[in-house]
Design brief:
Distance between the termini: 40 Å
Number of strands: 5
Number of helices: 10
Strand content: 5-15%
Radius of gyration: 19 Å
Shape: globular
């Protein structure tokens, strides 16, 4: 199995919600006490949410920033930590995560509910680091042996990918899963233990659907499709990490 397939399947395994279900079942949070007092604020006027940038091309980041009224200014950065943390190649001209900057602001879920996250004022310019060469995670062999770059990979050039309708359907499943985890993040503090367990079961079923569909199609994905799924998987993993952290605090 090629490295990118291992990455996709590995990420899918990581975002499985078995541990989340366990944490939900053991929660001792008194939701009935807080449910009546929870009030969320609207995001202050003029702020827009920052798009994710990790593992995306400069062109993708530029387009997504433009859509929300932001400007990306790119600078070369050593992204070996990103490659190591995700056990994934950061290809040349792909970007890393946005580093802390003065013109970004984090709004947390306790105050802002489902709209939590990193924001910046519309019209702001943010610096985004990118790789000027293929960056490999520690432990991987030289790119000339076990892993091929997009430009030289016969798999990338010969595989045109699944049809647009099939891929859009798969992306839709990913988006639905991510949205449901994000919603759960925003309301977990006001849910009863029974509601939490039911929500976890629903998410697990969605996760199983996504994984099954991905496994069926994984051999036929193009490089571009692989990259898009990897990006979405990383976004979902971040939502799961937030949820897990909340549940640990809740114990």
């Amino acid at each position: 199995m090629s490295r990118w397939k291992k990455v996709l399947l590995g990420i899918a395994a990581l975002i499985a919600v078995i541990t989340v279900v366990g944490n939900l079942g053991g929660s001792k949070h008194n939701s009935s006490k807080e449910s009546s007092s929870v009030k969320t604020k609207p995001i202050p006027e003029g702020y827009v949410k920052l798009p994710s940038t990790a593992f995306k091309t400069k062109e993708q980041v530029t387009d997504e920033f433009n859509q929300v009224g932001l400007t990306a200014k790119f600078n070369v950065e050593d992204l070996s930590n990103l490659a190591d943390a995700n056990d994934q190649i950061v290809y040349k001209d792909n970007c890393g995560k946005i580093n802390d900057q003065e013109n970004e602001k984090y709004f947390d879920s306790d105050e802002y509910g489902d709209n939590y996250g990193l924001y910046a004022k519309k019209g702001s310019t943010l610096y985004v680091g990118y790789a000027d060469h293929d960056t490999y995670p520690k432990g991987s062999k030289n790119q000339s042996s076990s892993v091929s770059t997009p430009s030289s990979s016969s798999e990338a050039t010969s595989n045109k990918g699944i049809s647009k309708s099939e891929f859009d359907s798969l992306l839709g499943e990913y988006d639905h899963l991510g949205d449901e985890v994000k919603k759960l993040n925003g309301k977990i503090d006001s849910m009863s233990d029974v509601e939490k367990q039911n929500a976890a079961i629903d998410i697990m079923q969605l996760q199983n659907t996504v994984t099954a569909k991905q496994v069926d199609m994984i051999d036929d994905l193009s490089l571009s499709q692989q990259t898009q799924l990897s990006n979405k998987s990383i976004d979902i993993m971040q939502e799961y990490n937030t949820l897990t952290a909340k549940l640990k605090e809740d114990k």
